[in-house]
Amino acid sequence: QVQLVESGGGLVQAGGSLRLSCAASGRLFSTYAMGWFRQAPGKERDVVATINWSGGSTYYIDSVKGRFTISRDNAKNTVYLQMNSLKPEDTAVYYCNVLVGTRALDSWGQGTQVTVSS
């Protein structure tokens, strides 16, 4: 079972930046596709960005394209989400997870809260 620990969230003003990190356990991390997800209050958890096992292929939802960058360091079992030009609508709890096809594993970490003030 993969354990995931997200960190790096916080309170930031609109236009600011944050870098989220997700540390994963296990020797198979470098074989997994990974994704960042977010859940705003009263809404479902949705995908934000994904990255394949090597980092050579990425995907972003339209609302974050050009502002967010997903990356990974397989030597450190860590995936990152660099978030620039943050907007109040980016406020949410952010989670990472392993992707199997297009689906995330059922087990989730505690997430990290991102709050963007206007």
Which short descriptors sum up this protein?
118 residues; mainly beta; 51% strand; single chain
Characterization of the model:
The mean pLDDT is 96. The chain has 118 residues and is mainly β. The chain is built from no helices and eleven strands.
The gyration radius over C-alpha positions equals 13 Å
What's the overall average pLDDT, rounded? 96
The first-to-last residue Cα distance is: 39 Å
Strand content: over 45%
Gross morphology is globular
Number of strands: 11
Biggest sheet features: 7 strands, mixed
Q: Count of helical segments?
A: 0
Backbone structural class: mainly beta
In the predicted model, the low-confidence regions spanning at least 5 consecutive residues are none
Instruction: Tell me the series of helices and strands, N- to C-terminal.
Output: EEEEEEEEEEE
**What percent of the residues sit in helical stretches (DSSP H or I)?**
under 10%
Produce the secondary structure layout.
Blueprint: E1 4-7, E2 10-13, E3 18-24, E4 33-39, E5 46-51, E6 58-60, E7 68-73, E8 78-83, E9 92-100, E10 103-104, E11 112-117
Parallel strand pairs: 2-11
Antiparallel strand pairs: 1-3, 3-8, 4-5, 4-9, 5-6, 7-8, 9-10, 9-11
Short description:
This protein has 118 residues and is mainly beta. The protein has strands at residues 4-7, 10-13, 18-24, 33-39, 46-51, 58-60, 68-73, 78-83, 92-100, 103-104, 112-117. Strand 5 (46-51) and strand 6 form a beta hairpin.
